[in-house]
Design goal:
CATH architecture: Roll
Number of domains: 1
Largest sheet: 3 strands, mixed
Oligomer: single chain
Shape: globular
Distance between the termini: 36 Å
Number of strands: 3
CATH topology: Ubiquitin-like (UB roll)
Structural class: alpha+beta
CATH class: Alpha Beta
Radius of gyration: 12 Å
Number of helices: 2
Order of helices and strands: EHHEE
Length: 74
């Protein structure tokens, strides 16, 4: 099952494109996604959301390794 990506920052379209392209090659392995994204974004982190009974696979993908606000606010 292809995961749903929750991207941060949400308004970085280049980062979003990179993450979606990388997940296409290995959708079941969050570590592989993190490694692929880190080629361009060295601090990137991928975390799996693990809620009991949740039918959807959701991964949080942080460009800077942690939550940051939208770019337009900086």
């Amino acid at each position: 099952m292809r995961p749903v990506l929750i991207l941060n920052p949400a308004d970085d379209e280049t980062f979003a494109s990179s993450a979606h392209a990388a997940v296409g090659s290995s959708p079941t392995d969050p570590r592989a996604l993190q490694d692929a994204i880190r080629r361009t974004y060295p601090s990137a982190a991928v975390h799996v959301r693990e809620l009991t009974g949740e039918p959807t696979v959701i991964w949080y993908v942080y460009r800077d390794g942690r939550w940051v606000g939208p770019q337009r606010e900086r």
